[in-house]
Amino acid sequence: MKTIKKVSMRFENYLLLLPMAFAALFLLFDQNATFHYRVSNTIYELDIPSVALTTLVLFFLPFMAHYFLRKDGIRNQDNANLHIMISISIYCLINMLLIMLPDYDSRWGRNIFATPNSDTYYKIVSFTNILWIAQFVVQFIFLVYSIKSFAKAGSRSNNNDYITV
Asked: Does residue 119 sit within a domain?
């Protein structure tokens, strides 16, 4: 029982648990959680479970990096916690913005002036795009940091492994 409590309290587990929890809540309470998301001239239909699945795929490599850094004892706890908090915050913001997204109307492109809904829609979509890019950048930076930490730890441990004749 002590091992289960220890494993469940690791902060990096939230990288995988939170997207699954969001998807389960939306599937449970909101059956029609489909959002029309326009990027340039293409309209995509997104739903929270597909966003959660994309985020799970995106978070899997950093989760494994957290695991191996902790297992090898080379993890800086402050950097790891900062990465997890930033990743989860961006993920929650993306979900909140998708919930606030008004329904897309195809007539908005023909209006001379922006209607209040179209203006709100385009602002939310552009900010969501920025958040997706930020999420990818944060994960990439953490993976580079992890690889650098592994390389540094490997070079320290292999310093005296040479053979002398």
From this structure: yes
